[in-house]
Amino acid sequence: QLQLVESGGGWVQPGGSLRLSCSPSGREKGWTVNSFAMAWFRQAPGSEREGVSCITIGGRTYYANSVKGRFTISKDVARNTVYLDMNNLRPEDTAVYYCATTDYVDLTSWNLERVFDTWGQGTQVTVSS
């Protein structure tokens, strides 16, 4: 069974940076970061889960308008890890961040929760002074 292992959350002051990591387990079964489209979603208290960023099998990237220019998604095939580099963090970025996978996304579907079928356990990101 595919599982996603996330790490990298924590507390940071406004303007600071964090890097989130997500690795799919089951490499012996052929599950790698090039097996799926992989995305980051986030959910703040009292809010719905929203798509933050996504990287396709071919390396195309998508970003929510609220994070464009501040967040960067990437994948390291050798380390079998997808990263979300978050810079210039703001208090409104505070949320639980989730990694998720699906077979295929495009411009109209990359940020739809229902499209993704495997989810990580979530990692808390808190931005405050």
What features would you describe in this structure?
Helices cover 0% and strands 44% of the residues. It has 129 residues and is mostly beta strands. Strands 2, 4, 5, 6, 9, 10 and 11 form a seven-stranded mixed sheet that branches. Strand 7 and strand 8 form a beta hairpin. The N and C termini lie far apart (40 Å).
Q: What attributes does this structure have?
A:
single chain; 129 residues; mainly beta; 7-stranded mixed sheet
Summarize this entry quickly.
With 129 residues, this protein is mostly beta strands.
Describe the protein's topology.
Layout: E1 4-7, E2 10-12, E3 18-24, E4 37-43, E5 50-55, E6 61-63, E7 71-76, E8 81-86, E9 95-102, E10 118-119, E11 123-127
